[in-house]
């Protein structure tokens, strides 16, 4: 009971204003009071305007104008639903604005598909990103207002989002920028589990405050010239674990405390057991991006992450400085196929404004490649012997980099399998001496299905089967 006290307290104000439900007798179920009974939504004609109720399992819905979930209302999307954000024409992108509650409840057997129809993916290695519809944005996204108390998304494909936000969507949500996923309620909860986010113009997911549980997802080819798999700001707290991030323009996860509200706890996210591959190569600004980023007053933990051929290693930013007093990291595994990448396992201050500390628990150990008299922030040139060393032994992946390809060419999963072979040196190399934050309650519909603890294997895929399920 004590575990959820702060969470329940934060929702009380939201419930008073935005829910017509009666006060629950059992406080442990208080967060469920925001969810009203739902009635079926017809698929007979295309949707626009205010919406509430249930999109029924297996049905296909077309959206021809912006749709909105009003405060106090709930939209439930059942397993196997397909939602096509077509708009009224090819030049008018539309999206979903949420002031109330959104529950996308896909399953492994019957995931939800949220997409724009008729788009051909250009996933072949070497394809020009400038011509890729995945990075252009075809529909706006799922945009949560500051009043949205709960956004739960499980086993859902989200594709081609991030198009220009309409005036009506701006007015409804108060958001000025489009993202495939956006959440901004410091007193609310956001859950993204076992889902796929493919393509975006900028960040595939931006969050400005709230309690989060983001586990076992796949983020592919997101951000045209900038964008991270998670861009968390303004007092975001929670867990980001067992995610596969491949081909992000900038980073996998980034945590900042910029724009935090008065009285809101600072951003603190535990980032563990993620696999982050070939990120940072479309970032327009020099010295930015690559794998994991903590900056501007943000703290947390970063352990057991498998970082492969990313532009930079974990970055602790100096200016504005991260919350280094409340930041711990180590046991992260690095692999590189080029000297330039290996020479930024610990980013240099002159190149990336980072003050990351070397951790002897990392693989490879920094003492094996840093020069004598090296100081935090110094540039260095990694020895050639480090190239190709510590191969994580994926079942099927572009490691080492295939001949004729650049690191920037690998941006999607495609036919690759980033699970570990049985002889992988990453197995049993993880650190389990910490716990998830666990800020989100466990509930099959209204919270986390499971808060997966730290894994004994490095990366998102675990030999015990409890990690990322996307094989």
What's the gyration radius in Å?
21 Å
Q: What low-confidence regions span 5 or more consecutive residues with pLDDT below 50? A: 1-31
**How much helical structure, as a percent, in the residues?**
under 10%
Oligomeric state of the chains present here: single chain
Calculate the mean pLDDT score and round it: 89
How would you describe what is shown here?
- The protein folds into two domains: 35-185, no CATH class; 196-471.
- The protein contains four helices and 29 strands.
- It has helices spanning 5-18, 167-173, 339-342, 349-352; strands spanning 47-50, 53-55, 60-69, 74-77, 82-85, 96-98, 101-105, 112-115, 142-144, 150-154, 156-159, 181-183, 189-193, 196-198, 205-215, 218-220, 230-241, 244-246, 253-255, 268-272, 275-277, 293-294, 299-303, 306-308, 315-316, 327-330, 333-335, 394-396, 417-420.
- The strands form two sheets. It has a 27-stranded parallel beta sheet that branches. Strands 28-29 form a two-stranded antiparallel ribbon.
- The longest helix has 14 residues, at 5-18.
- The chain is globular and about 70 Å long.
């Amino acid at each position: 009971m004590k575990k959820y006290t702060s969470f329940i307290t934060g929702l009380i104000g939201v419930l008073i204003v935005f829910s017509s439900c009666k006060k629950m007798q059992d406080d442990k179920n208080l967060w469920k009071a925001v969810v009203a009974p739902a009635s079926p939504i017809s698929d007979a004609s295309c949707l626009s305007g205010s919406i509430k109720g249930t999109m029924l399992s297996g049905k296909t819905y077309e959206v021809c104008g912006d749709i909105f979930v009003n405060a106090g209302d709930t939209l439930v999307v059942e397993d196997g639903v397909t939602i096509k954000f077509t708009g009224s024409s090819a030049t008018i992108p539309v999206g979903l604005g949420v002031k109330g509650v959104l529950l996308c409840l896909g399953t492994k057997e019957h995931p939800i598909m949220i997409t724009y129809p008729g788009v051909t993916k250009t996933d072949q290695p070497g394809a020009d990103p400038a011509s890729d519809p995945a990075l252009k944005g075809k529909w706006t996204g799922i945009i949560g207002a500051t009043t949205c108390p709960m956004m739960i998304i499980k086993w859902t494909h989200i594709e081609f989002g991030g198009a220009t936000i309409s005036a009506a969507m701006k007015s409804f949500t108060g958001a000025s920028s489009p993202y495939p996923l956006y959440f901004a309620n410091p007193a609310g909860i956001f859950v993204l589990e076992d889902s796929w986010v493919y393509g975006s113009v900028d960040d595939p997911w931006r969050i400005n405050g709230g309690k989060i549980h983001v586990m076992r997802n796949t983020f592919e080819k997101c951000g045209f010239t900038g964008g991270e798999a998670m861009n968390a700001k303004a007092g975001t707290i929670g867990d980001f674990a067992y995610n596969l991030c491949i081909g992000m323009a900038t980073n996998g996860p980034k945590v900042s405390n910029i724009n935090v509200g008065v009285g809101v706890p600072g951003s603190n996210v535990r980032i563990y057991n993620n696999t982050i591959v070939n990120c940072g190569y479309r970032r327009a600004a020099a010295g930015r991006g690559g794998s994991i980023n903590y900056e501007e007053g943000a703290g947390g933990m970063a352990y057991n992450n498998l970082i492969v051929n990313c532009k930079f290693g974990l970055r602790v930013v100096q200016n504005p400085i991260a919350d280094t007093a409340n930041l711990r990291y180590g046991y992260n595994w690095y692999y590189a196929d080029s000297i330039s990448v290996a020479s930024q396992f610990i980013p240099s201050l002159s190149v990336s404004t980072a003050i990351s500390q070397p951790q002897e628990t990392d693989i490879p150990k920094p003492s094996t490649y840093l020069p004598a008299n090296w100081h935090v922030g110094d540039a260095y040139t990694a020895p050639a012997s480090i190239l190709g060393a510590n191969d994580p032994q994926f079942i099927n992946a572009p490691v080492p980099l295939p001949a004729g390809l650049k690191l920037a060419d690998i941006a999607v999963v495609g036919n690759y399998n980033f699970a570990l072979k049985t002889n992988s040196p990453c197995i049993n190399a993880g650190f389990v001496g910490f716990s998830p934050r666990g800020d989100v309650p466990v509930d099959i519909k209204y919270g986390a299905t499971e808060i997966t603890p730290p894994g004994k294997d490095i990366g998102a895929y675990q030999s015990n089967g409890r990690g990322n399920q996307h094989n």
